[in-house]
Amino acid sequence: MLKYIFISWLNGYKNIFNYQGRERRSAFGWFLLTNLLIFILLIKVYIDQDAEQYTTIKLCLLISYLFITFFAMIAYNVRRFHDANQSGLCCLFYLLSVPITVIVSVFLSPHYGDNIYGPDPKKPIIVNKQLIIN
């Protein structure tokens, strides 16, 4: 389970500029939850009173993390909308209402089977007589 959470989180950054294909609802949820926990940890480090001399470095780290995560979340969210057989252009609402778009994409029911955006991410793949689960 922990491996799946880490892979889901890492997949968001690995595919930061990939706006094609599909993503599972659980992977997107774990990506959001993991980023929330990391963000809370970075805020705690930034607020820490013991290391005031590194305030600028900590602030730059926090802003960089937020900036990179924002773009990874948009790409992940586009793929999540594709899983529900919706256009990824719905993510343009990110600029207007990020929380609403994220909540909607978490609860979108998937389109079972293949669709125009790609194969079903939950469907097992068989390569060289070995079962690979996405």
From TrEMBL:
<keyword id="KW-0812">Transmembrane</keyword>
<feature type="transmembrane region" description="Helical">
    <location>
        <begin position="27"/>
        <end position="47"/>
    </location>
</feature>
<dbReference type="InterPro" id="IPR008523">
    <property type="entry name" value="DUF805"/>
</dbReference>
<feature type="transmembrane region" description="Helical">
    <location>
        <begin position="53"/>
        <end position="76"/>
    </location>
</feature>
<protein>
    <recommendedName>
        <fullName>DUF805 domain-containing protein</fullName>
    </recommendedName>
</protein>
<feature type="transmembrane region" description="Helical">
    <location>
        <begin position="88"/>
        <end position="108"/>
    </location>
</feature>
<keyword id="KW-1133">Transmembrane helix</keyword>
<keyword id="KW-0472">Membrane</keyword>
<dbReference type="Pfam" id="PF05656">
    <property type="entry name" value="DUF805"/>
</dbReference>
